[in-house]
Amino acid sequence: MTKAYLLADKTSLEVRRDGLTTTIAVPAESSDPINTVVVLEIVGEPKVVDIQAVQDADGAVVLRAAVAKIDGDRAQYESGGAKDNIGFWTSAEDSVSWNFTVARPGEFEIEVTQACEGDGGSTYVVDVAGKDIEAAVKGTGNWDRYVTEKIGAVKLDAAGEYTLKVVPRKLVGAAVMNLRSVRLVPVR
Hints:
Elements: E1 3-6, E2 9-12, E3 14-18, E4 21-25, E5 38-41, E6 53-54, E7 61-64, E8 69-71, E9 76-80, E10 83-87, E11 95-102, E12 106-115, E13 120-128, E14 131-138, E15 147-156, E16 160-170, E17 178-186
Parallel strand pairs: 6-11
Antiparallel strand pairs: 1-2, 1-5, 3-4, 7-17, 8-11, 9-10, 11-16, 12-15, 12-17, 13-14, 13-16
């Protein structure tokens, strides 16, 4: 990146780099209360990089709905209010996945945070490192009332990149679930 500025004001913005992170300082007061555009000038073509989760300080990996790759036509990311989930998951043909990196391998408990109006009952599989873990969606009474369930454990034998995929097996009711996150927590 050679320069960063607001489209409405060509004054250069402060850019700080720290390892792989770039931070751009923007004014506290926006020049346009509805739509502020930050322009980034770069040399050459932009390189698109997949967002990839990494282990936190405690060794856990959090896979959030906002960065999931959705494969299918109906499931979609919802945001705003109590929403921050994969919703409108009305087809058992749709699936979601995440790429993540593990620096400290070992055994991990898998926790799924989900909501489902009514009784739930849809079933799904979490596929990671060649292991399928089957689970059933819990009814929470409302699409915005979330619960976190431990559904099983998986052993990641080596440091490196992995993919975790959530695939519905059976659709019961209007939709599979609202999926907020999947967490891999080290077993101590």
